[in-house]
Specification:
Number of strands: 2
Strand content: 5-15%
Helix content: 40-55%
Structural class: mainly alpha
Distance between the termini: 69 Å
Length: 143
């Protein structure tokens, strides 16, 4: 049996790791409305002090929150609560300039994808017609 290194818990032990506790605490603050979309999240230093955690532990918690869509980073400004619905009823946020901009961006992306798809279908149709022509014409050129 391999001994766990000091200060480490074995995976699957059922006891949440410190970075998971930090992330879940922040998620709960968002769910409860203590932190709202667009609000700045506590700084790394504040979370380190509050949880008695290392810098790496807080960084892992923030990475988890970002990965799961709860937080976003703004370079040079910090981390903020993401504009996503996680069960908090915030109808006002749907009319915000940020939400409108996100919808406009998404619509523009969808439109660009639809154009690209139509071009791809046209190219595939053209290629199929060429293949059919080659196959019906004997398929070959003289060697």
């Amino acid at each position: 049996m391999v001994a766990a290194r000091r200060g480490r818990r074995q995976a699957g032990s059922g006891v949440p790791l410190t970075f998971e506790v930090v992330a879940e605490t922040v998620r709960e603050r968002i769910r409860s409305g203590g932190l709202r979309p667009g609000d700045a999240l506590p700084t790394q230093a504040m979370l380190m002090q509050e949880f008695g955690a290392s810098s790496l532990t807080v960084q892992k918690a923030m990475a988890l929150l970002k990965q799961d869509g709860w937080a976003v980073s703004r370079p040079g400004k910090g981390a903020f609560v993401a504009h996503r619905d996680h069960g908090v009823d915030d109808a006002d946020d749907l009319d915000s300039p940020e939400a409108t901009a996100l919808v406009s961006e998404a619509a523009a992306r969808v439109e660009a994808l639809e154009r690209a798809l139509a071009d791809a279908v046209e190219q595939i149709t053209d290629l199929c017609a060429r293949v059919e022509a080659l196959e019906s014409g004997g398929g070959g050129r003289g060697r």
